[in-house]
Amino acid sequence: MVPPRSVAPRVLPAFTYRIFLFLAALLLMVALVLHTDYVVDRLKDETQNLCHVLARFLAVSTFEAVEDPGMHAIFQDVVQNITFPIVLTDPAGVPRAWKNVGIPPSAVPDSVLDRAAATHVIPPEVRRIQEIASRLDRHASPIPVVRLASPGILGFVHYGEPPLVRQLRWIPYFEFAVIVVLLAFGFVGFRSLQTGEQRSLWAAIAKETAHQLGTPLSSLMGWTALLREKSAGSVDRAGVEEIAVEMERDLDRLAKVASRFGQVGSIPALVEGDVTEAVSGVVAYFRHRLPHLGRQIEIEEHYEPVPRVLFHRELLEWVIENLIRNAIDAADKWNGRIEVSVAWDRPRREVLLRVKDNGRGMTPEERRQAFQPGFTTKRRGWGLGLALARRVVREYHQGRILVAESAPGQGTTMAVALRVPPSRA
Questions:
Q1: How confident is the model at residue 306, as a pLDDT?
Q2: Which end of the chain is less congested by CB atoms within 10 angstroms, N or C?
Q3: In sequence order, what are the residues at sequence separation of 6 or more whose Cβ sits closer than 8 angstroms to the Cβ of residue 289?
Q4: Are 324 and 282 in contact (CB under 8 A)?
């Protein structure tokens, strides 16, 4: 029967927080874009209405009437207040007035325009204005100037977008960039805060565990000394001595556990050593105690010659114990098989430790969450073993720990890779 999987409730709030943060940013972005589009459309409508008013004004006054001094003053006032590109042409397309097109009105005399309209010979400076009018027509259709109650077109009003409209079109992109930057900073800050909280939590748990282990350690040491004294006159002295030896081994193991947890909140010193020796020692400890655990499990060992690496022995043994203990729990109770191997990956310059079991394996979702604090597939457990093992390997030893292979019903292979410096290869 597959043990029920339990996921710590701490994982869901963080994920939900990120989802809500993303949705809020998305809604804000959509609202800003819609508002900007609304403002741009309003400005375009106002520009078009102004051009229609200007066309009606020209239709009433006609181009010829503009030459009247009084009408000319009114026309200049109207054109002077225009802030967008505009070109006024006659029916033949000859420019008669323009503004905000990059060419000052005084650059082309009226005599040149009159000659172009009469002879249909367009000089270069007039053709430049006609090309500008054509470009304006690509964005907005020209408005014809039609005299009221009289057929015929007097001219056309060619106009473009006001500078403010063009600037507003870039606002959504600018807003999007700002939101992305804020989200990035927020995500980094949230992850840093979450990581800091987790580290503080694990360090506090570890130190409290070390403190709690101190009392039974002292008591067991006292009982061991008393047992040795009592065994001096005992008939079965060899049996009592054997018990005392095993108790001392377990006491040493408890002392190591306390020391390991005490190291979690600090930076341990790494010492050059033989990884294979550390691994074989842990395997021997578990192999000797498997019968007492009620398990019929075979442990196979495969060791290759590997370079010496820098590691903290107690902490690395802790990682190995976690992997082997998980393999024992996952393996078949009466026909279990665990393979422990140490190999040298020369291309990657890494010493590889693998622990493989023939247990139930993991689903893809379980593989993704295997190292999350609080995640466990066991009926009982806090889900801290692999999380602390990852910290020991990645942060203290600058190595890698991963689920190398796993599939439902096909067992699991866990791997630890410790990098070997070039000077020690």
A1: 93
A2: N
A3: none
A4: yes
Give the domain range for residue 240. 170-244
Give the model's pLDDT for residue 320. 93
- Looking at residue 73, its pLDDT comes to 57
Q: Are residues 178 and 325 in the same domain?
A: no
Looking at the structure, tell me whether residues 328 and 386 fall in a common domain: yes
| 117 and 176 fall within a common domain | no
- Domain boundary among the residues 135, 169, 203 is at 169
3-state SS track over the chain: CCCCCECCCCHHHHHHHHHHHHHHHHHHHHHHHHHHHHHHHHHHHHHHHHHHHHHHHHHHHHHHHCCCHHHHHHHHHHHHCCCCCEEEECCCCCEEEEECCCCCHHHCCHHHHHHHHHHCCCCHHHHHHHHHHHHHHHHCCCEEEECCCCCCEEEEEEECCCHHHHHHHCHHHHHHHHHHHHHHHHHHHHHHHHHHHHHHHHHHHHHHHHHHHHHHHHHHHHHHHHHHHHHHHCCCHHHHHHHHHHHHHHHHHHHHHHHHHHHCCCCCCCEEECHHHHHHHHHHHHHHHCHHHCCCEEEEEEECCCCCEEECHHHHHHHHHHHHHHHHHHCCCCCEEEEEEEEEECCCCEEEEEEEECCCCCCHHHHHHCCCCCCECCCCCCCCHHHHHHHHHHHHCCCEEEEEEECCCCCEEEEEEEECCHHHC
For residue 139, is it within any domain?
Answer: yes
pLDDT, block means (10 residues), the chain with 425 residues? 38 58 77 78 75 64 52 59 80 84 84 84 88 87 74 79 73 77 77 70 64 62 70 63 72 73 72 93 83 76 93 90 88 83 93 92 87 71 76 90 90 93 67
Residues 182 and 303 in one domain: no
The CATH number linked to 368 is 3.30.565.10
Q: How many independent structural domains does the chain possess?
A: 3
Query: ∠194-198-201 over CA atoms, to 5°?
Result: 140
Residue 276 within a domain: yes
pLDDT at 418: 95
- Considering the domain architecture, whether residues 165 and 177 belong to the same structural domain is answered as no
Predicted confidence at residue 44, as pLDDT, reads 72
pLDDT for res 2:
37
Q: Looking at the structure, do residues 86 and 141 belong to the same domain, yes or no?
A: yes
* Residue that is last in its domain, among 141, 169, 197: 169
- pTM of the full structure: 0.48
